[in-house]
Specification:
Radius of gyration: 22 Å
Structural class: mainly alpha
Number of strands: 0
Largest sheet: none
Strand content: under 5%
Shape: rod-shaped
Length: 52
């Protein structure tokens, strides 16, 4: 199923692998950052409701 890439097989497959790893890392960091920001926003909202 993999197309014949000739002498560039290693280069192309390595590029695909690096791209997939970088995209996965970007997604993970984005989700973690989103959770952190959401938690900080909830703390701020709680302080605002207590202080009225």
């Amino acid at each position: 199923m993999i197309p014949d890439l000739g002498k560039y097989t290693d280069t192309v497959l390595t590029s695909y692998a690096v791209s997939i790893v970088l995209l996965a890392a970007l997604i993970v960091f984005s989700v973690l950052r989103g959770r952190k920001v959401r938690a900080e926003m909830e703390k701020v909202e709680q302080r605002m409701t207590r202080n009225g």
